[in-house]
Design a protein that fits this description.
The complex is a heterodimer. By secondary structure, chain A is mainly α. In chain A, 79% of the residues lie in helices and 4% in strands. Chain A is built from 13 helices and 2 strands. The two termini of chain B are 48 Å apart. Classes of the chains: A mainly alpha, B alpha+beta.
């Protein structure tokens, strides 16, 4: 018995060790790499320095890249939430066998490779696509712009990519809100909008914040959408990191950018969570303790 | 507070008719209980009154005013749900004040009224608790206070005590009856528990398979069941099958399988030769000699005596392995023992005969 138990524990420990090796060790190396000076051609100095960080944090180009990435990610996450919540609500309240198929469809769509999805969007938004034709039609040919290779295109790509996941996350959230609460609100006199504001949103708020953060985090690291739909015009942090590595072979600055991206994402998450705690949930918890 | 009228109310889902043309008038201040087995249409009817389900046809009038095409919020009803449906993100006070706030009442008015309601349910000290911090019975009372706070025209209660254990259930029944009398609000209470219905109702509406089987005061339903379903569903009943020998207006003579002939009352179609079932309440059965004039008598063997606390049940066997239950109060010593054969007596006015529902099959 004891022997079996040991073998079992051993197997678990091995799995843990492999995970650590695959996950933490590479992180350690690139974090370490960010503290050395780049000598060009992939060579690095041998003295520890904060020079890379100083360069990034004092250069308005990098600052702009960070702000742009945060802005696109936040707007895309917000738009995705606004589309996903009513959809999830509708799905969770529909009382039909079709629901199962819709959920399967949603799952399958989230397995489609991002490259394929982005290609589809490229065709839709491209100069031969229906949207450009429509915009030219309604402006009598005055509008002559492009829907591709700009921030809007990247944001649309991010929304499309995160949407299935958000719908599924929020579906679970809305399902935990009993239908009888809605009935109670309406029979006691609440209009549909008031019901959303006083019951649905407060009760979904934790889930909405979580889902929004997940989408935001995905967006901050999104590379494919940014590079393919941005067409090199939209420089986000992942795009710049790739350029530093492939084009300039500047590993230390690329590493420092990666570290800063990670830190920025973590900091934003912590701030959002802290603000959220200060709200209704926090007040309630504090009261319970007292 | 208002009267409520249902006129030929029908609800159909596809080809299934769940509610089959209900007519009902409820007086102002009346406490009505919809009673019936699950699937009888009682909850569907309640939800049509609330406005959650649209009737297929028919009309609903509250205080004479048709409300069929109004959304729930415009009907000015109060409702208590089976799962209470308290808003978990609001305190008890905010829950109770919900309807007032939604009606745009000023803060001071809301605060005063909430205090009043909390006093009514004896929970004035718990206003700033959250629903999750309350017991089932307390949540129930808050749900009731929330439904009454804005003085709705009619109060609807959908199996509100179903989730409580027996003891608390009875306590809540008394508490609810007190509050209903105090407020005097027209109330429809849905339940499948006939004891609960008897304990609460001014009038019980027994529903079965989408129609009203019988409507009346609890005593009427118990003492004068109109159908076999009512006799069987309300209270405990002995059911004795037999064949009609003779009929004279409301009185029928039925021959039991063992050969005895008993007399009972009958208001339905029963003619000589039909198979019939006779229903007698356990407490209407007596034993002993001499046999009073006109009483029914069957000879039966005492199988078992079972003590119930409030009384004693004797399980008796008569005729061809048929069983009946005789109930006596505890202090009435019958002096009969298991295994003994006795003469079971009951009066024709306590015997109700119906046509056998299985006869046609």
């Amino acid at each position: 018995m004891m022997r079996v138990r040991r073998a079992y524990d051993g197997a678990l420990a091995l799995a843990l060790a492999v995970s650590v090796l695959l996950f933490i060790v590479p992180q350690f190396f690139f974090v370490r790499q960010s503290f050395f000076e780049s000598l060009g051609m992939g060579m690095m100095g041998d003295e520890l320095t904060l020079a890379n960080y100083r360069t990034i944090l004092t250069d308005s180009f990098y600052i702009a890249v960070f702000l742009r990435t945060i802005a696109i990610s936040a707007v895309a996450a917000l738009v995705a939430l606004i589309i996903a919540y009513p959809t999830a609500y509708w799905l969770s309240r529909m009382n039909s066998p079709a629901l199962r198929w819709l959920i399967i469809l949603l799952l399958v769509s989230s397995f489609v490779s991002i490259v394929v999805k982005v290609l589809g969007l490229t065709m839709l938004l491209g100069s031969q696509g229906p949207f450009v034709a429509f915009l030219q039609f309604v402006t009598f040919g005055l509008w002559n712009g492009s829907l591709l290779h700009n921030e809007l295109a990247v944001a649309i790509g991010l929304v499309q990519y995160s949407l299935p996941l958000l719908i599924m996350l929020l579906f679970g959230v809305v399902q935990t809100i009993p239908k009888s609460l809605e009935e109670a609100a309406s029979v006691h006199g609440a209009s549909d909008w008031r019901l959303v504001r006083r019951i649905l949103l407060p009760l979904s708020l934790n889930g909405i914040v979580t889902a929004g953060l997940i989408a935001f985090n995905m967006n901050m690291g999104a590379f494919t959408s940014a590079v393919l739909l941005g067409g090199g015009n939209v420089l986000t942090v992942p795009v710049v990191i790739q350029q530093k590595i492939i084009l300039e072979v500047d590993y230390p600055v690329a590493s420092a950018l990666s570290v800063l991206l990670t830190v920025a994402v973590m900091a934003i998450n912590l701030v959002v969570v802290a603000v959220r705690r200060g709200g209704f949930a926090g007040a309630r918890q504090r009261r319970k303790i007292a | 507070m208002s009267s409520l009228t249902l006129e030929r109310l029908v609800k159909r889902y596809g080809s299934t008719e769940v509610v089959k043309g209900i007519n009902l008038h409820i007086e102002e201040g009346e406490l009505i209980v919809f009673l019936g087995p699950s699937g009888c249409g009682k909850t569907t009817t309640l939800r049509m009154i609330a406005g959650f389900i649209e009737p297929t046809s028919g009309a609903i009038r509250i205080g004479g005013e048709p409300v069929d095409h109004k959304p729930p919020r415009a009907r000015n009803l109060g409702m208590v749900f089976q799962d209470y449906a308290l808003f978990p993100n609001m305190t008890v006070a905010d829950n109770v004040g919900f309807g007032l706030v939604e009606r745009g009442k000023p803060q001071e008015v809301v605060r005063k009224r909430v205090e009043e309601m909390l006093r009514l349910i004896h929970m004035e000290h718990l206003g700033d608790r959250y629903p999750i911090e309350l017991s089932g019975g307390q949540q129930q009372r808050v749900a009731l206070a929330r439904a009454l706070a804005y003085e709705p025209r009619v109060l609807l209660m959908d199996e509100p005590l179903g989730a409580l254990d027996q003891k608390l259930r009875e306590e809540m029944q008394r508490e609810f009856a007190r509050i209903q009398r105090e407020v005097g609000i027209t109330t429809i209470f849905v339940t499948h528990d006939q004891q609960e219905a008897m304990a609460l109702a001014d009038r019980i509406i027994v529903m079965n398979a989408g129609v009203i089987e019988q409507a009346g005061r609890p005593e009427e339903l118990y003492d004068e069941p109109a159908t076999l379903f009512i006799a069987d569903f309300i209270g405990r009943s002995n059911i004795l099958p037999g064949r009609v020998e003779q009929r004279e207006k409301e009185l029928v003579k039925v021959r039991l399988p063992g050969g005895e002939i008993i007399t009972g009352r009958c208001r339905s179609e029963l003619t000589v030769g039909d198979t019939a079932v006779c229903v007698v309440r356990p407490e209407a059965l007596k034993v002993g000699t001499p046999r009073p004039e006109g009483n029914n008598a069957i000879s039966a063997k005492v199988l078992r005596r079972s003590f119930l606390g409030s009384g004693i049940d004797f399980i008796l066997q008569y005729g061809d392995n048929q069983e009946v239950i005789l109930q006596t109060s505890k202090d009435m010593e019958l002096g009969i023992r298991e295994g003994e054969t006795v003469s079971v007596l009951f009066r024709p006015e306590d015997t109700f005969c119906f046509s056998d529902p299985k006869a046609g099959q």
